[in-house]
Structure formats: structure tokens, C-alpha cells
């Protein structure tokens, strides 16, 4: 499976993603639909970050454009946030500073496009993307990214998606970032995108509603919906922008460390800040990831119980899962003086272990929780398909879990018990027969 892996230790933004993809082998010529639709052009260059040669991609106004709008951040009193080159994607009206123009430590003879063009509503952005004559899959991906941004914006401000008004994210350069990344990813032709935990940075940032800590509200909202993990540091600056977060929320699976790859290409996309000890670059690696199971870093918590009410034991699946447990097992055990008891074993991510252990202690009253450093587990990729069954003229839906390896090869189907039970209650079929029919229905359509 051809895999693209991002190293997220210095965060990500729209321009860093553009640059990293070009550095990893994507053809900048594929960006032409954006240049044809907007008064902008992409300029590809290079810079050095702490001894690392990195690619830059700047979005500039075309020379025929006379109206530069509010493109000068200094004249508008904007502050340069993370400065990941061209990312206007902060929480639209929430941000009045210009996070897009993170200078690349070199001067351009042409005008950067940040802030140029109207600040559009969500629907105006959707209409503009629809008019760009993009390949169907690229248009679908771009609209999905803008929907993530819009939903995050709406959630932060307590509004509806239809009422969302983009400011920076609706400007030409921000649209060029999002659509450009989608075009470059399509050109790169990868089957899978993954990212290691994304660093948000630290400190504070000025937005329209005051001074907020990093990560900003929109990034937090997007991260809650994403598959990848968010972490702080390693510097006091804004490293992860909403545009970067939204793009990766749509495309990328989260992994704890870079996967095993037979590398074909790699590259570095530069951010604008320069730090003394941390190269401000986004690394991208492309190669064959094989078809094995995915390595998932875990640890195991366990405790022995001999006086816990059965109702509490029965609720542990729900209460522990709510705070981060990946799996909960309760096994019968023989305790001291031959008393009957239970052994509770909980699989968790290392970063969730303390929180889950505290909840386990509070729920059960146990005086101690042991932790075993299991290291990792191998997990399948999981997806759900809906089987529609026709039983005596009535149609019933049953969800079926499909397990596959990293190459997408399916090796197991499992119908959801609760769905099958609901169908069995309304028909004369057994739960087992409903599950069999659901699995067969999905298997024959694969």
C-alpha cells in the first residue's frame, strides 16, 4: 500500500503541507486549476531551517491584479501567528491576526496574497470550489475540508453551519491552500495518509475575542473529531493552524510513530518561524507500507476486586471507555482465603493511563491499580457497512464491521449484535441467522 506519512512534531499548516507534498514528489503543475480560477499563483522555492534544506510554497497575487485588498498584514495591525507561510485558516472571524504570512526568511518581489479577495461565507466558498473545474475526487475532498472548518467554527461560536461566515479562511490564499493540498495529494497518488501526533505549540495568541492559549479553540474542536493525537510544545509558538488541522483531520489516520516504509521519496516543507533548536519543518515520507496490521502503542492496567457490587462491574465498560479505555475485560478470580473475586484488565493508550486508572479506582474503590507496559498491539483497520435485509417484505438495516489489513485486504466480517437482536425481535428469525444473512449481504457486495 502506497503510504504518505507526516512527521507532526512541528505541527502543520496549509503552506507547510503544500511545500512538504511538493518536496515529496507532487507536481506543482497540478495546481493550475486554482491559478486559473483565482487571481493568485504559486511560487515554489527553497530555504534552510537549522541546516535542513526545505521547500517553500508561497501564494502570490498575479501581476495583473491591481486590487491587493487587505494583503499587507502590517498595515492592518495583524500579528503573525505560527506563521506557517500561507495559512489564513484560523477560526475565521475569531482571528484578526494574519497567521498566513509566516515569512520564510527571504523577501519576495511580488505581493503575497494573504487576505486578498472577499471574505466569503461557507456557502460562497462551496460555490467557488464547485466552479473550479476540479476532478470529482479533488472537489469532494476540498469541500470536506471546508465542512470540517465550518463545523468547527460553528461549534466554537454556537452557530449553525449555514450561518458560518469565514474571514481569513474565505480569502483567496486560504482557498488556494486547501484546494492546492487536495490537488497535490491526488497527483501524488497515495493510498493511505498517516500522521504522528501533531504538536500544537504553546503560549498565547491574540484573536478577535481576546488572548487565547495555544491551541486555539478551532484547533481543539477539529482535534476532537480527528483520528490523530494532539500534543503541546515543543516551543512557545502557534504550530498547528486550523487549516492544517482540518486538512489532516480529513485525510490522515493517527499513528504513534512513523510506520515501516520502503521509501520512494521524502521532503521537508518549511514554516516561517526559525527556532534555535527545532527545525521548523514538516517532513513527508512516501513509500510502500505493505499490508500488515497497524502497530498501536498501548499499556495495560489491572486490579483485583473482591467486594465490588455486580452493578458497578457491569458499568465499567461504559465508564472506563468514556475516559479513554480501548478495551475492558473482567475475569473471575479466586482471592485470598478462597474468596471469589474478579480481575479487571484495561487496555489504554499510554497517555490515557493515569486518567483511566483514577476512574477505575473511583468506580470500584480499589486501593491499587497495576500497570504493565505491554508496548503495543497489532490492530486491523475497521470500517462499517450497512446490510439491508428483506424479510417477509420488510426491510431491516444491520451494521457489519469489516476488518482489513493495511493494504485493504478484508479478512473478517462481523454483524453488530444489537442490530441483529432488534431485527430478530421483530421477525421469527434467530439472532444467529440475522447475523449470518447480514454478513453474507455485505460480503457479496465487496
Spell out the blueprint of helices and strands:
Layout (H helix, E strand, L loop, with lengths): L1 E6 L6 H10 L8 H6 L2 E10 L2 E10 L60 H9 L5 H22 L14 H17 L3 E4 L2 E2 L4 E4 L2 E4 L3 H9 L4 E2 L10 H10 L1 E2 L7 E9 L10 E8 L5 E12 L4 H13 L2 E10 L5 E9 L4 H12 L5 E10 L1 E11 L2 E11 L5 E6 L1 H10 L4 H15 L1
Parallel strand pairs: 1-4, 4-9, 5-8
Antiparallel strand pairs: 1-11, 2-3, 6-7, 10-11, 12-14, 12-15, 13-14, 16-17, 17-18
Helix pairs in contact: 1-5, 3-4, 4-5, 4-6, 4-7, 6-7, 8-9, 10-11
Keywords: Lyase, Nickel
GO molecular function, one term: lyase activity
Family: Belongs to the LarC family.
Which key features would you list for this structure?
Alpha-Beta Plaits; Ubiquitin-like (UB roll); 11 helices; nickel cation binding; lyase; Ni_insertion; lyase activity
Amino acid at each position: 500500500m502506497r503510504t504518505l506519512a507526516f512527521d507532526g512534531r512541528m505541527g502543520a499548516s496549509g503552506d507547510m503541507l503544500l511545500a512538504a507534498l511538493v518536496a515529496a514528489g507532487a507536481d506543482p503543475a497540478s495546481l493550475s486549476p486554482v491559478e486559473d480560477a483565482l487571481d493568485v499563483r504559486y511560487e515554489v522555492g527553497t530555504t534552510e531551517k537549522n541546516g535542513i534544506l526545505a521547500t517553500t510554497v508561497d501564494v502570490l497575487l498575479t501581476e495583473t491584479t491591481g486590487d491587493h485588498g487587505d494583503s499587507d498584514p502590517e498595515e492592518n495591525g495583524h500579528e503573525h501567528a505560527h506563521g506557517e507561510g500561507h495559512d489564513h485558516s484560523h477560526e475565521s472571524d475569531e482571528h484578526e491576526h494574519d497567521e498566513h504570512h509566516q515569512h520564510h526568511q527571504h523577501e519576495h518581489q511580488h505581493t503575497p496574497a494573504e487576505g486578498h479577495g472577499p471574505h466569503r461565507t461557507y456557502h460562497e466558498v462551496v460555490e467557488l470550489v464547485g466552479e473550479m473545474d476540479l476532478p470529482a475526487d479533488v472537489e469532494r475532498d476540498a469541500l470536506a475540508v471546508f465542512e470540517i472548518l465550518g463545523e468547527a467554527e460553528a461549534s466554537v461560536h454556537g452557530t449553525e453551519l449555514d450561518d458560518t461566515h469565514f474571514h481569513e479562511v474565505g480569502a483567496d490564499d486560504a482557498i488556494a491552500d486547501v484546494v492546492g493540498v487536495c490537488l497535490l495529494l491526488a497527483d501524488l497518488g497515495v493510498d493511505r495518509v498517516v500522521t504522528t501526533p501533531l504538536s500544537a505549540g504553546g503560549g498565547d495568541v491574540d484573536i478577535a475575542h481576546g488572548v487565547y492559549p495555544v491551541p486555539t479553540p478551532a484547533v481543539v474542536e477539529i482535534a476532537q473529531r480527528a483520528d490523530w493525537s494532539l500534543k503541546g510544545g515543543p516551543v512557545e509558538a502557534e504550530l498547528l493552524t486550523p487549516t492544517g488541522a482540518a486538512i489532516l483531520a480529513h485525510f490522515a489516520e493517527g499513528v504513534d510513530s512513523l510506520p515501516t516504509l520502503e521509501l520512494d521519496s521524502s521532503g521537508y516543507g518549511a514554516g516561517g518561524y526559525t527556532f534555535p533548536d527545532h527545525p521548523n519543518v514538516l517532513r513527508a515520507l512516501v513509500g510502500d507500507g505493505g499490508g500488515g496490521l497497524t502497530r498501536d502503542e498501548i499499556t495495560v492496567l489491572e486490579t483485583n476486586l473482591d467486594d465490588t457490587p455486580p452493578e458497578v462491574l457491569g458499568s465499567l465498560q461504559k465508564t472506563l471507555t468514556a475516559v479513554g479505555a480501548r478495551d475492558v475485560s473482567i475475569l473471575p478470580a479466586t482471592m485470598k482465603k478462597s474468596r471469589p473475586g474478579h480481575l479487571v484488565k484495561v487496555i489504554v493508550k499510554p497517555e490515557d493511563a493515569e486518567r483511566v486508572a483514577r476512574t477505575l479506582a473511583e468506580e470500584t474503590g480499589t486501593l491499587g491499580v497495576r500497570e504493565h507496559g505491554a508496548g503495543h498491539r497489532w490492530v486491523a483497520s475497521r470500517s462499517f457497512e450497512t446490510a439491508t435485509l428483506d424479510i417477509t417484505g420488510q426491510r431491516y438495516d444491520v451494521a457489519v464491521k469489516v476488518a482489513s489489513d493495511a493494504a485493504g485486504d478484508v479478512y473478517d466480517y462481523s454483524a453488530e449484535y444489537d442490530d441483529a437482536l432488534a431485527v430478530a425481535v421483530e421477525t421469527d428469525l434467530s439472532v444467529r441467522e440475522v447475523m449470518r444473512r447480514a454478513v453474507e449481504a455485505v460480503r457479496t457486495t465487496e
